[in-house]
Amino acid sequence: MTSEMSHFDETSGVIVCGTEWGRWWQTLEEVHVEVDLPEGTKASMLRCTITNKTLNVLVRGEVKIKGNFPCLVKADDSVWTIDRKLLHICLLKVKTTADQCWKSLLTDQYQADPYTQDQMQRKLTLQRYQFENPGMDFSNAEISGNYHTGGPELPGS
């Protein structure tokens, strides 16, 4: 599933939710978080703690992100890396269905605005269709109608 989903993301883009510290976005399987770092920040200056329910990010002793996830993640399979002035966190979702679109990165924090949330839900529904129909290309597809609960069941699904 990952290679098909990676191809889908590369050809159709991601729906990003901006924050004061960076940005986050999601796929069916993952939530990605990017935190902008000050010039010269090294891994030893960071503390990134991921549990199944929480995320805590400290940069040079300052809390950047702290709170509870709206849904469980697979903490042992989630990772973080530094690339120049960017901390990238990849969280693996426990529930990987289109109806599990996160409305916020953390409970009551970093919520996507209604338009962005709508676009995220559309994207996850199209990803679901791509996964269920691997021979079809949904990267430029549009969707309308009932997609807020993961979309309707397609024939043969």
What is this structure, in a nutshell?
With 157 residues, the protein is α+β, with helices and mostly antiparallel strands.
What does this molecule look like?
Helices cover about 20% and strands about 30% of the residues. A 5-stranded antiparallel sheet has the order 1-2-3-8-7. It has a 3-stranded antiparallel sheet with strand order 4-5-6, with no helix packed on it. With about 160 residues, it is an alpha+beta fold. The radius of gyration is 16 Å and the shape is elongated.
What profile does the largest beta sheet have?
A: 5 strands, antiparallel
Shape: elongated
* Secondary-structure element pattern, one letter each: HEEEEEEEEEEH
Number of strands: 10
Poorly predicted runs are 1-8
Main sheet strand line-up: 1-2-3-8-7
In terms of quaternary structure, what is this? single chain
Radius of gyration: 16 Å
In DSSP terms, counting alpha (H) and pi (I) runs of 4 or more, how many helices?
A: 2
Distance between the termini: 16 Å
Query: What's the pLDDT, averaged over the residues?
Result: 85
Helix content estimate: 10-25%
Report the sheet-strand fraction. Answer: 25-35%
- By secondary-structure content and strand pairing, the structural class works out as alpha+beta
Give descriptors for this structure:
single chain; 157 residues; alpha+beta; five-stranded antiparallel β-sheet; three-stranded antiparallel β-sheet; elongated
Structural topology:
Layout: H1 2-12, E1 17-18, E2 22-26, E3 30-36, E4 46-50, E5 54-59, E6 62-68, E7 79-83, E8 86-92, E9 104-106, E10 109-111, H2 114-132
